[in-house]
From TrEMBL:
One example GO MF annotation: peptidase activity
Family matches, as Pfam families: Peptidase_S78
Location of the Prohead serine protease domain: 24-158
Name recorded for this polypeptide: HK97 family phage prohead protease
């Protein structure tokens, strides 16, 4: 979370629906409803509705970034919508840019298979297990990321090693903590 802006991020491995098609078209789920992530949060159905409506009314789009870095846009999301399963996104990596070409190559190779949302919590509650139920979110961006946090929304990868996700999540948590420390310093 960025202390200056209140921006939070929520990782989701892109799901079995993530595809990279012709002309670097990409689509998949950036968030799944009712599925606890590694932080114990659950996004509730309808959490994005007000934000998507407001963005549309203002003529703006959700940004597509590389690793949540606002200085590194890599494409455009042409369609962002909620369905019964979660937040579905469809867009294009801009291969006319260096970062867009690199992102397309990494996704095509399977080196990058995660999506992550950047958002501000507008309304949340706690359930009886102490988990945060995210009821309304202000969606800012959807990034392609290396280390996702929602393992149940994932792309099947050939030769996956059991237990590797746990080690990667620990590494991601350590890197996230280091990033926060650098931002404060």
């Amino acid at each position: 979370m960025s202390y200056e802006t209140g921006l939070e991020t929520k990782f989701a491995r892109a799901g079995e629906g993530l595809t990279l098609g012709a002309d670097a078209a990409i689509e998949g789920y950036a968030s799944l409803f009712g599925v606890a992530d590694q932080g114990g949060d659950l996004v509730q159905k309808g959490a994005y509705a007000a934000s998507l409506t407001a963005l549309g009314a203002a003529g703006r789009k959700v940004k597509m970034l590389w690793q949540h870095d606002p200085a590194q846009p890599i494409g455009v999301w042409d369609e962002v919508r909620e369905d019964d399963r979660g937040l579905w996104v469809k867009g294009r990596l801009l291969e006319s840019t260096r970062l867009g070409r690199e992102a397309a190559a990494l996704v095509a190779a399977g080196a990058i298979d995660g999506l992550s949302i950047g958002y501000r919590t507008k309304r949340a509650a706690k359930d009886d297990k102490g988990r945060r139920l995210l009821q309304e979110l202000e969606l800012w961006e959807v990034s392609l990321v290396t280390f996702p946090m929602l393992p149940s929304a994932r792309v099947a990868a050939k030769g996956e090693t059991p237990g590797a996700d746990d080690a990667l999540r620990e590494l991601a948590a350590a890197l996230s903590g280091a990033r926060l420390e650098l931002a404060r310093g």
